[in-house]
Amino acid sequence: MSILGVFKRRPAEAVAKKKLDVSIKEKKQNSSLKDKLLNTSKLIKHGIGSIFLGKKKVDAEIFEKLEEALLTADVGTSLTYEIIDLLTKELERKELKDAAGVHAYLKDYLYRLLAVSECDWQIEKPKTGPYIILLVGVNGSGKTTTAAKLAQHMKSLNKSVLFAAGDTFRAAAIEQLQAWGESLDVPVISQHAGADSASVIFDAIQAAKKRNIDVLIADTAGRLQNKTHLMKELEKIKRVINKVDVTAPHEIMLVIDANNGQNAMQQTLEFNAIMGLNSVCITKLDGTAKGGIVLNLAKEFELPIRFLTVGERAQDFKKFRAKEFVDALLG
């Protein structure tokens, strides 16, 4: 397509195309998860691991700095004190000889803590219709962009994809998803703004069945977890999907903005109680010092963490790997 052709696109479409267009130059500039986490967090910029650099003796200063770093990263008071207490006890038992030993022990502990949330995602198209992924979350968490990145991931697995524009509330949400759809060559089922979301998703399921689509990704409107009437709308969507296919939705994924920090814990608690979550996706980790929330979520809910997003490019959508995350956090 010519440059003129790009400028003729609708504004939302042009933005969508720009966000997911992976050029050769971008691939060369692709950064590791560690690089992304280092970019914008003062805590991780210097690395929790740097607390142990050049230290041989374990003293009170190390534990004070570690406690401060963990709290700043939004690991949370309960888990932070649990970690400090555990390290202190190991030190008293003479199991840890020096700062390097403390560092290694902490890494191993966090590997094991996060291992429960590292799960391979088996996506098998049911005989009854498409594999249905329902994206839920609060306003501004990045559900629509996550839908696009998920679609690209599914296409890389040679699966056909259909979008359901279930966010009929937010201004321009439908147009945004349509722009992603055109950019990715993924069809979109939509209705007018303000339409019933459950009706839109019902139509999308029927369309997916007729077209023999493998994966249906349903976007939904953002809603605060403490707004009862909005959460009931989500329950309705789930009921409608379940009536069409008793095994569906096959994946209810909570999209969490890492910038929300400890509020993400309450979001997960409320959405899980009402919807029965299957997994979470954590977005915007490149722009926050609160990456420690990943640790808290894993410990408290033991839900699979499917993906982390650390930027707006396609390759910034990363499968969650416990070891990679801990290595990025601790150095």
How many distinct beta strands? 8
Percent in helix: 40-55%
Low-confidence stretches: 1-11, 22-30, 39-45
Number of helices: 15
Mean pLDDT over the full residue set: 85
* CATH class label of the largest domain: Alpha Beta
- CATH-defined superfamily of the largest domain: P-loop containing nucleotide triphosphate hydrolases
Domains, number = 2
Biggest sheet: strand arrangement: 3-2-4-1-5-6-7-8
Structural class: alpha/beta
Gyration radius from CA atoms, angstroms: 22 Å
Which sequence of SSEs, written as H and E, runs from N to C? HHHHHHHHEHEHEHEHEHEHEEH
**Terminal Cα separation, in Å?**
43 Å
- Assembly classification: single chain
The proportion of strand residues reads: 5-15%
Fill in the CATH topology of the largest domain. Rossmann fold
The major pleated sheet works out as: 8 strands, mixed
Coarse morphology: elongated
CATH structural architecture of the largest domain: 3-Layer(aba) Sandwich
